[in-house]
Design goal:
The protein is α+β, with helices and mostly antiparallel strands. It has one domain. It has one helix and five strands. It has a three-stranded antiparallel β-sheet, covered by helices on one side. Strands 3-4 form a two-stranded antiparallel ribbon. Strand 1 and strand 2 form a beta hairpin. The protein starts with a strand and ends in a 17-residue tail after the last strand.
Amino acid sequence: MYVIELSLKLSPMPVAVQRKEQDAALALFAQVRQAMESGEPRLLELSCEKEDEKRIALLSSEIVAVQTYEKTAGSSSGKRPGFSFDG
């Protein structure tokens, strides 16, 4: 399972959706990145493959970061993927 996580302006909690295949996760990552680069605010509707009823629509101009990572079954530690200031 692959997670695409979005950080939004003025929001302490990220928004995340999941994809079963890496290619699908990378395609969604590219779609979000392209929307961010365009500079034109547009509405993005995202859904989660793991939970079909989980959907969100958000304005691309409110996204400040996007990351993708593989969710592994053995990752029971509290450390999240991505960049961190922790030593």
